[in-house]
Design goal:
Cathepsin B, Chain A, 222 residues
Length: 222
C-alpha cells in the first residue's frame, strides 16, 4: 500500500495503528484487539575465522508450521503462518477462501501473494491491514550487492516469504560470510517448508544459486 493510500485511509476516519511486531510463540487472542505483542527478538551472531567474518541473522527458533495439503496451497500456508505471528486467528483455508479459490490446490502462488495487501478480517472478525513489500531478489552468488543487506535488515524483525524452492516457503534465518575485502555472500538459508511437513530445512545449493523473490509481510490493526 502506497503512502498516498495510507493517507487516504487515515483521512477516511479509519483508525490506523503502529505496525505490529512479529512474535514467535503462541498466538495471543488479544493482539489484534490493540494489545502490544511481546515475543523474543530475532537473534544475530558473528565470529571471525581465518579472516572471514561469519554471521547469522533471523529467527533460529520458530513456531511449528502446519503442513500444506498440496503445492498450490503453499503460498496460503506461508501467508497464514506469518499473519498468525502478528496475532491473527486464521489458517490457510481462511486465506484461500478470501480469494474464492475453493480448496486452493489449483490456485496461483506469487500472484496471490502480491495481491494480499489491503484490509483483512480474521476468523474472529478483527480487522487489520496487510502490507506486502518486495525486497531485492536473493541468491548465493550475490548478483545484487544490495540484496543481502536489505533482506537481513527485515529478517532481523520478521521471517520473510521467499520463492527459492518450486513453491513459497518462509525464510527464517540466513548465514553470511564477509571476506577481508568486504564482499558479502550468503552461505546458508533456512526455511519453514509447508511441503516438508512444516519443518525447518536448509535450502539446497541448487535452490540458492538461482535468484529468488523475497517478500516482507507487515500488519497494522484497524
Amino acid at each position: 500500500m502506497t503512502r498516498r493510500e495510507w493517507l487516504a485511509l487515515a483521512l477516511s476516519g479509519a483508525v490506523v495503528s503502529q505496525p505490529l511486531r512479529w512474535a514467535p510463540g503462541p498466538v495471543h487472542a488479544s493482539a489484534l484487539g490493540g494489545a502490544a505483542q511481546a515475543g523474543a527478538a530475532a537473534s544475530q551472531a558473528c565470529f571471525r575465522l581465518d579472516g572471514v567474518v561469519h554471521c547469522s541473522a533471523g529467527f533460529p527458533v520458530t513456531p511449528v508450521m502446519p503442513p500444506a495439503p498440496c503445492s498450490g496451497m503453499a503460498w496460503a500456508s506461508c501467508l497464514a503462518y506469518l499473519l498468525r505471528g502478528y496475532g491473527a486467528d486464521l489458517d490457510h483455508r481462511s486465506v484461500v477462501a478470501r480469494y474464492g479459490q475453493g480448496d486452493g490446490c489449483g490456485g496461483g502462488q506469487a500472484p496471490a501473494l502480491a495481491a494480499a495487501a489491503g484490509q483483512w478480517h480474521d476468523d474472529q472478525g478483527r480487522g487489520f491491514l496487510v502490507q506486502i513489500t518486495e525486497l531485492p531478489a536473493l541468491d548465493a552468488a550475490g548478483s545484487d550487492p544490495a540484496a543481502i543487506p536489505a533482506v537481513l535488515a527485515r529478517l532481523k524483525r520478521q521471517p520473510l516469504i521467499c520463492g527459492a524452492a518450486a513453491h513459497p516457503t518462509v525464510l527464517t534465518e540466513v548465514r553470511t560470510a564477509t571476506s577481508r575485502g568486504g564482499a558479502v555472500r550468503m552461505v546458508r538459508a533456512d526455511v519453514r517448508d509447508p511441503l516438508a511437513e512444516g519443518r525447518t530445512r536448509p535450502l539446497s545449493a541448487a535452490e540458492l544459486q538461482v535468484p529468488f523473490y523475497v517478500l516482507a509481510v507487515s500488519v497494522r490493526v484497524l
